[in-house]
Amino acid sequence: MSLEQVEFNIISVSFGALSQRTAELHRYLLNSTQYYNASPSLKADNFPPNETIAGLAGGLAAGHHAYNVEGTRILFVI
């Protein structure tokens, strides 16, 4: 048994999830306050979708599939 790849990713991957949550916060504020009425440009259609969590999970799955070795696993140590 041997490790094929070890990656230390301390902070950067967390920003994907944070950016999605921030986009959700902006949509919440748009729907719950009148603040966004300050500009005609601030409307729901102008808020782009943000699905980075699914993208990160898809990237991990693609990397796992690329090894194509039965019994391989992804381990998260938090």
Automatic annotation (TrEMBL):
A GO cellular component annotation in the UniProt record: cytosol
Alphabetized InterPro entries for the sequence: Glutathione_synthase
A Pfam family assignment: GSH_synth_ATP
Gene3D superfamilies: ATP-grasp fold, B domain
SUPFAM superfamilies: Glutathione synthetase ATP-binding domain-like
Protein name: Uncharacterized protein
Species, as recorded: Crucibulum laeve
MF annotations from Gene Ontology: ATP binding; glutathione binding; glutathione synthase activity
